[in-house]
Write a structure and sequence with these properties.
Elements lengths: L6 H13 L35 E2 L3 E2 L18 E8 L4 E9 L3 H16 L1 H8 L3 E11 L5 E10 L4 E11 L2 E10 L7 H14 L2
Antiparallel strand pairs: 1-3, 2-3, 3-4, 4-8, 5-6, 6-7, 7-8
């Protein structure tokens, strides 16, 4: 995840993510009908950075490792994953994931699954890593397409490292998108309003 969690915390988070969540099954490989690929955010559509500019990486097939601390593919098989990573010259990063499922019902279940993983991420962090304190916040839903939800996550290690992330899950038809933003800091440093705008743009832009 673009959030900057130190090595000991990241290891614990990955293990926790793999153990969490309801198992969802997807259609057999090749069963998802082909359609236009969903579009991604551009660098200019990320929350503005006060002293740097965003750079967008290429759209890449597969699940981004950067989301593995709260969201994973565990129990979610044979979907078409694509992602784009973003960075600034400083310690701020972001990533967008898109997942094309077979039906709107499967997408609805997958969006709930991902949101549940994000909602419970702080508890899993603290259970798996005694040297990390974590707090999650719910910033509410957004009225875009089939809906989106924004949440925040703050972590602080026993040696004083502190990181803040914003994460959202949205859906348009049978496609789900997850967006995350992260940097060093706490909830006061989170650009919640700008991230909500980014999430709305991300969902609207899919098709």
């Amino acid at each position: 995840m673009p959030m900057r969690i130190r090595a000991s915390a990241l290891t614990a988070l990955t293990v926790a993510a793999l153990a969490a969540g309801t198992v969802l099954t997807a259609p057999a490989a090749g069963a998802v009908p082909k359609a236009a690929a969903p579009k991604f955010l551009s660098a200019s559509q990320l929350p503005p950075h006060p002293t740097s500019v965003w750079t967008a990486g290429p759209v890449t097939d597969g699940f981004p490792e950067g989301l593995g601390s709260c969201v994973s593919t565990e129990g979610v098989l044979d979907y078409e994953y694509r992602h784009r990573e973003f960075r600034t010259d400083l310690d701020t990063g972001a990533v967008q994931l898109t997942v094309v499922t077979g039906t709107p019902a499967l997408a609805k279940a997958l969006a709930k699954h991902y949101d549940d993983l994000i909602r419970t991420c702080a508890d899993r962090i603290e259970e798996s890593s005694p040297d990390v304190e974590a707090e999650g916040r719910d910033y509410g839903s957004l009225p875009v397409e089939e809906g989106a939800r924004v949440r925040g996550l703050h972590t602080e290690t026993s040696w004083g490292a502190t990181d803040i992330s914003l994460l959202s899950v949205g859906r348009d038809g049978r496609t789900v998108t997850v967006v995350s933003w992260g940097q060093m800091g706490d909830f006061d440093d989170a650009p919640v309003a700008a991230f909500k705008k980014t999430t709305t743009t991300a969902v609207n832009k899919l098709y």
